Protein 1
Amino acid sequence: MATDINKAQFIKDFKDQLYEDFMVKNSDATAEEQFVALAKVIKNYVRPDWFRQKNGIVADKKKTAYYFSIEFLPGKMLQTNLLNLGIYRMVEAALAENGVALNDLVAAERDMALGNGGLGRLAACFMDSLATIGAPGFGNGIRYKYGLFKQKIVNGYQVELPDAWLSSEGNVWETKKPHSAVDVKIYGNVYLEPHDGGVLKPVYENVKTLHAVPYDMPQIGFQNGVVNNLRLWDVEIPEKYELDYPTLADRRRVEDITSVLYPDDSSREGQSLRLIQEYFMVSAGLQTIVKSYAKMGLPMTAIQEKVAVHINDTHPAMAVPELMRILMDDYGVKWSDAWTSTIAVMSYTNHTVLSEALEKWDAALFKEIVPRIHQIVGEIDRQFVAKWASKVDACVVDNTRIIRNGQIHMANLAIIGGHSVNGVAKLHTELLIEDVLKDFYTIFPEKFNNKTNGIVPRRWSQIANPKLSNLIDDLIGKGWRRDIHELKKLENLTSDTAVLAQLDLVKTANKQRLADYAKKMLGIELPVNAIFDVQVKRLHAYKRQLLNVMHIIKLYQDLKANSELELTPRVFIFGAKAAPGYHFAKSVIKIINELAALVNNDAEIGDKLKVVFLENYNVSLAELIIPAADVSEQISTAGKEASGTSNMKFMMNGALTLATLDGANIEIKDAVGEDNIIIFGMDKNAVYDHYQKHDYNARAIYDNNPEIKRVVDAFVDGTIPNIHYEGHEIWDALVSYNDEYFLLEDFDDYVKKQAELATLYANDKQTWQQKALINIANSERFSSDDTIELYAKEIWEIN
Ligand code: 26M
């Protein structure tokens, strides 16, 4: 075990590695070289456990869960790996003795950002938790050469640059496995030909064959000797099929398949390349899984006893027909047996109720790219309709079948082809059942279940917030680092004024850390005595960054009208990437930046208000920002945010949540009690009421509420300079197009609750910190270790 390594041994290994890779002495090495050497030493330490776990799957015939996801967003791995191996302090000290600051090496690692936001980050938390609970659970995804775009702000606008995260060294954590490569076929024609005994076998013509080569990354459990595997696939041109790709352009088209992560989580991206990515990852993963199951020597029809495959959102939903294909075409299993197994193997998580984000593919395109899969989907659809037509209403069948109006509905495929459908927070699952998927619920009520999201506590407390962690050690001992539920003990300390004062000091220190960063990046001084009010997440209309902006405009206008006004100083902090084609979202970014320039440079405003937009929000920046927050903005239109996970990270770091009753905010409220969260605005029923009655009238609110009118007009009357075009776009969205996300209706209550919390912060810091402590104590409820334990027991039935 790595924990047996002592300092002397470690330093020897480290220096040997520097010598081997770079022929350099430690004293002459760059931080990048030192980082690479350290990562390789760690990889060497975990190799035996990693190898054992991978080989144990077949040898011990262990049931294994495979988490299929088109996104994984782990961020940096160095600190997590050191912590989980139990050698963080030892390595830190050993390096320090040799003149190396571990922090410099941490800074040298690049974020692995193979994800857009919540969905990809959840997948990364789950990988850590699977290993930590000691479950055999492997990830399956794509090794994109370029991750989510790097965001620069130029003249207030978002500019997207490629994220070349793979250095010339590749990814130091990964190991390429050429011997485990498999071939994936796309395009061409396929027809069925009778074989011996009348079995129909597909014959392929003119297919294109892709070579899928896996790269494996160790996923280290928290101090338990378990190392799971995250397998990411890259594409190569198979030597055998070189003639199929004679020109450079042909070869480039192949390379494109794993070249970039789609940066669009706002709506479906109808590119055939995306469809190929999805099939490529699913086929390569499943072929490998079935092959390793075959090695166990058990009957193919019992594969569900050893294999669970999870479909993370609809992107990997072709796993359903692909498993059918492999079982039937490659292993001769008959349809009915293959279907029984497939349903038992597959399970699916839904992450959104937004209809524009539910994947649909043009059936003709689908047929062109994956003709055999198209046949199988056609047959699944035919049998589904045949079975249910006589049992339920025609419109129910119509709403649930896979192929309709020339489109393939991927969610329907995932639901019909699996045994479990889960939402990601209580309210979200209820909405799936009552609304979005209600027809499915009448057919398959037993498939539906809730699994409220969680976050991996190690990264979001110990690593992101060492100061708070040390304080917690002093208060309740170190046991919480292993068992997060021990955080509950903090609740006994909420009347201890000395504790509350210490908590305040920690928060201020974290605010200073962020202020230093803002100073370096933007040249702005942030007053750390101000409330740090933070909204960091993807930019979306439904997440309502614009409501936050309207509140800032209101405060600005109030101050301009009366410079004597008593106002608790505030720093508003934003971080958000907009999908490159999402016009509205990009306009909001421009407006935030112009508003920031206006407010920050107004001498009359001084330190009372500051607005900062921190560019390139990613996991590493989240680790810096979240511990510094006093207020966590979770202000989506009720019913729209499936769960949210940053809400959990903020609470774990002692921010108070200002929230609508949406997603997991509701469960946070249940955990901390109404007094320790600030709730505002319409709940989901009020929102749905408007949908039903069609009675929402934004224009009337605008006309009758002078304050709202003043704020909304600031977008177009020159109050904020340089937003002529964007301002009109926003004004129209709010007034002319009837404010789809109900900002105007929720505005008054939002402003009121904002004022109340500002007063509390100014007048009673102690009560504030008391609430913060209650939030920290109860964040134990949102550990992804517990979430994954439930997936393992209730969905995958693994140990
Ligand atoms: C679709 C088509 C083409 C390219 C990309 C996409 C796409 C990518 C990501 C669509 C959606 C994507 O992610 C959705 C997402 O992140 N959902 C969030 O999932 C979190 C984890 O469950 C929840 O906490 C959030 O509430 C939910 O918005």
Protein 2
Amino acid sequence: MKTFKSTCCYCGVGCGVVVTKEGNGQLSLEGDKEHPSNMGMLCSKGMNLHYTVMDQSDRLLYPQMRLNRSMPMQRVNWDDALERTAAVFKTLIKKFGPDSVAFYVSGQCLTEEYYLVNKLIKGFIGSNNIDTNSRLCMSSAVVGYKLALGEDSVPVCYDDIEAADVIFVTGANPAWCHPIIWRRVEAHKAANPDVKIICVDPRKTDTSRSSDLHLQIAPGTDIVLNNAIGRILIEKNYIDQQFIAAHTDGFPDFQEKVMQRTVAEAAELCGIDAADIYTAAEWIGQCKGFLSFWTMGLNQSVIGVNKNLSLINLHLITGKIGKPGNGPFSLTGQPNAMGGRETGGLANILPGHREVINASHRAEMEEFWNTPVKIANKPGLTATEMFEALADDKLKAIWIINTNPLVSMPDINVAEAALNKSRFVVVQDVSNRADTVKFADVVLPAAAWLEKEGTMTNAERRITHLPKAIDAPGEALPDAEIIWRFAAKMGFGDSFDYKNTSEVYDEYTACTAGTTIDVTGVNYQLLKTNRSIQWPLTTSFENNKTPITGTKRLFTDHQFHTKNKRAQIHAVPDENHSEPTSETYPLVLTNGRIRDQWHTMTKTGRVAKLNQHTPQPFLQLHPEDAEHRNIREGQLAVIQSRRGEVRVKVNITEDVRPGLCFLPMHWGKILGSNLARANNLTNNLVDPKSKEPDFKFSAVQVSLYKKP
Ligand code: SF4
């Protein structure tokens, strides 16, 4: 019997787990009581995590390829698969240039994997065409932080929960999607009944039900609400004049903007009582600790960056940031979305939060990597742009790593047409559940969680080490090894000559020297000894005899990462630019997660216990909208948008506002059909700054299904 300490590979809470490998090879798992993020707690998904690696029935076991898509896949060896892929990449790059190829990766990739793919394409191939599915969930928060605080820096930590007396949850349902954080919030509230929880969500959820105030706003009116709260904070003099004067810019424009709309007008637009907006503002204004949590309700929007800014504004005008219990806290939906941001895993950034458009940042990385080419000076294709470029034959080849775009991309017709038209597709994944496998020219089997070593960073900047505990089945290889083997086939072997991921990690941490996310000197040994470290590591640890934990909170000196060290308050407009509803499509569809599933169900869908909670997809519809359409509970309905349709059973509930309906995002195929796929309906509008899609607002019609 042997035990291993690892980290849950679902959401960004990053709970520590202890895995026990029995003598007979069976695994058992429990929460790690010593891990500061969860202190032994696990949610239903985390508790059943080990089943995802024990069931190997649908695993990809060996490399496969075919010379054209009409042929069946053939089993090949690793050398053949990687040599052919390298040959195709070299041919395309020679003929069409480095921007003819792209990597589309995942927030589930480990930090080392992210770093290597970035190094390969940005430093050695000469293109910035790498983007991640995290673009679909947190890029608006990244841009929001940068514009307001000067850098993509989550300023807070989980311990701020217990130091807060107002917890503002907006566009998020942590009770289901980040359950361990929510348990801490609930325990804090139970011990301190005066603590106020405010939930902003167009739906009633388990989060709103355990809140003191639910602001059930109309979809798309988040900025209207936040600006109205800002107006009240100014009018009631709850703002921190001294902080504003000493540490921020932009307040006069903000004041002018929020005064343009009365609270009564805002309440009407939001569809809530003005008195409730006043209550929220009073609580925020009077509290000592104001902590705000948000996820996709703000981020996945055509105005996602401005929604983020409108929330961060509330912290800046009240000076409630950089102190215990205060600050904006974007929750990440994936286990290593943060690690991707640190290593440059987006089309516009480089490792160490450097920018591709910054000449000195490019020069630093060119020197560090000793690149044979110049790093391109413009951002590469983002997630949606990649698929559009494939469909237009501007992009010739795509390498998809551990993500399932045929369920997760908006307006799925575009992604499907793109893969159909693409010249060359490599799919690197764990299981054949990924819908992309059928479009692949080359399939590369990847090792799963527990089968490979590496690191991840959770939502509070906490880096933990994940050990290899079991062997991968068949010929599956760790993703990092696949990339360094491929780099060698491309002729870059000298710069990708790693023996293990520990060497990759050491190289990554060295390149953070002098940056705001400096983790120089952090290595596997230190992470194993300390269990975890929050970046940046500012303590000199040579003579340090106390445990090294890194940095809990940022901006405690109120020196922000902007050029003049002052945070920027933004006067953001409050109009929503989502697609309009119409007579034909009069309802707004929003989508999201359910308690026991995660993403496109390629992992959670394999666990029988998790499938029991909600076995089938459903549409939540308000009773008035159901009655108007003569639809009864449990009947099959057709949901149509300007792009496609979905057929699922209806759940009639007042949990949604009239005019709003809700569909879970998880389901791809059911009984061979894609008719439960939410992204049949969504559109490819994106926020102009973050390029994050408008998943949460699609104009639809719902009608009773009638057999043809
Ligand atoms: Fe895993 Fe997130 Fe659940 Fe923690 S809260 S056990 S990280 S899914």
